[in-house]
Description:
Blueprint: H1 5-20, E1 35-36, E2 42-43, H2 52-56, E3 60-62, E4 65-67, E5 73-74, E6 77-80, H3 84-87, H4 93-102, E7 107-113, H5 123-139, E8 143-149, H6 160-174, E9 180-183, H7 193-208, E10 215-218, H8 221-224, H9 235-238, E11 247-254, H10 260-270, E12 275-281, H11 293-306, E13 310-313, H12 343-354
Parallel strand pairs: 6-7, 6-13, 7-8, 8-9, 9-10, 10-11, 11-12
Antiparallel strand pairs: 1-2, 3-4, 4-5
Helix pairs in contact: 5-6, 6-7
Bound molecules: ligand IDC.
Amino acid sequence: MALPPRRKRLFGLLAVLAAVAVITPLGISAASGDHADDTGTETADDTAAVTPAAEHGKLLVCGTTLCDESGNEVQLRGMSTHGLQWYSQCLNDASLDALAYDWGADIVRLSMYIQEDGYETDPEGFTQRMHDLIDEVTARGQYVIVDWHMLDPGDPTYNLERAETFFAEIAAEHGDQDNIFYEVANEPSGVEWPTIKAYHEAIIPVIRQYDDDGVILLGTPDWSSLGLSGGSDEQEVINDQVDAENIMYTFHFYAASHDEWYLDGLARAADEIPMFVTEFGTQEYTGDGPNDFAMTQRYLDLMADKGISWVNWNYSDDERSGAVFEPGTCPGGPFTGTGNLKEAGVWIRDAIRAG
Ligand code: IDC
């Protein structure tokens, strides 16, 4: 499980105090070896519990969930960035500190679009930005998802060569780290599972050349809905699984659009195959419109019950209701507290801190 709530809150408070005291932000991470425990007593003996990655270490897939090396189930909770091509200015020292220490996020998804002015326009530049951001998140003791945010066209095969180049570079550089997740296809659409599965079977060995057990997250049909958005259901994937170790299947939902049909599908799938919710919103599938917090809470309860890790969309100041910050917050902030958060931001920050 993630950090106990009291420790998490206390850690967040200490982080803010440390930052105010102009102690280097990283000085309060696992490296410092000096922080307060649950009782408020200064200790130096439980630093391993300070950051999520230090506490849980390497995570592997065991059965249908993630486990630490002792076999204890671990559920991660965190945030996705918006597209790096548009909202890189929302990812600086202050905002990343806020996400790590004020929000207490276990994991950050780095969302790199391929089209729409993304990776395809400057492979070297985007790869370098990804390396740098992976290092930033790693320095804060969090887990990180490297998200190959293919979206349109929906056939992942269209970007296969680019993906091979990119994931080889990322895995060669970071494959020895304990905190990396590879999400190899954000949201396939318009193609059947066999085509998506063949793509996964092509990209997995590219990563495995350099990282023999880092968890690889596999996109599912109809915008990573396990086929539910297309009127199919989870059985197609369950009956025709990718033959590889340390893989999980992704599921995305937007609570104001996706009701019982989705919730039940996720519940059924999670009993059979390892699921990871790498993207969800409290609003409509556009990432905009009114929030449905009651429905979202039902999803959160299910995911807690089944040990499904999750990541919310998105940590930016885009004008849509699903971007947590008010427009104009980036790059200057402030990013801590709730002063610059939209309604969805306040709600999801509470959900992560409550973990
Ligand atoms: C949306 C962004 C929006 C952007 C659009 C571009 O919120 O600013 O213009 O993408 O394609 C997804 C996608 C994700 C979407 C998000 C909200 O993975 O890229 O972001 N969404 O629509 N799947 C379901 C919803």
